């Protein structure tokens, strides 16, 4: 499967958004692009729907040769295919969504797993971030209105095109389920 995903990998330059800035009164606010989906904020069905659109169909069926190439053993499932795996970007996004839900226990409490599984999500994200090792410089800047320093996370980065990966996953699931 890793080789099968290679054609979907495209690089693009992305300007990160969502950094914290100061308004004219020195109050912090989150800088958002209103044309982009909202993934954080007070819990709501709209935010949940955006996350579902992002991480749906995290797992895909594999051919026997793909499964063999990654050392996967067959097991029986009530599905058409015997081998399943997921590209880690979708699992990592699932973990981020899970951590987001843990921040609002009153709203999501009945949907959350036991504590050991919650901690697993955090450790998976730690390892994924260490693995990717993004070397983009994040500068510290001075805000003249508030007379305070802030970290400017809204810097351009070279990223894999996530929409291309999402499209690849969607097409693959559709084709393999036929």
UniProtKB/TrEMBL annotation:
InterPro entries: UstYa-like (IPR021765). Pfam families: UstYa (PF11807). Pathway: Mycotoxin biosynthesis. GO terms for biological process: mycotoxin biosynthetic process. Belongs to the ustYa family. This is Tat pathway signal sequence.
């Amino acid at each position: 499967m890793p080789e099968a995903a290679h054609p979907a990998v495209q690089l693009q330059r992305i300007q990160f958004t969502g950094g914290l800035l100061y308004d004219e009164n020195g109050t912090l606010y989150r800088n958002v692009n209103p044309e982009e989906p909202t993934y954080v904020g007070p819990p709501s069905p709209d935010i949940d729907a955006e996350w579902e659109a992002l991480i749906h169909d995290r797992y895909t069926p594999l051919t026997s040769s793909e499964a063999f190439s990654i050392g996967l053993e067959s097991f029986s499932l009530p599905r058409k295919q015997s081998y399943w795996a997921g590209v880690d970007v979708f699992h990592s996004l699932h973990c981020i969504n899970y951590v987001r839900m843990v921040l609002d226990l009153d709203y999501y409490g009945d949907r959350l797993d036991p504590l050991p599984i919650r901690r697993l999500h955090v450790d998976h994200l730690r390892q994924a971030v260490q693995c990717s090792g993004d070397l983009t410089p994040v500068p510290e800047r001075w805000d003249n209105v508030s007379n305070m320093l802030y970290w400017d996370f809204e810097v351009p980065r070279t990223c894999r095109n996530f929409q291309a990966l999402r499209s690849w996953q969607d097409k693959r699931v559709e084709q393999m389920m036929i």
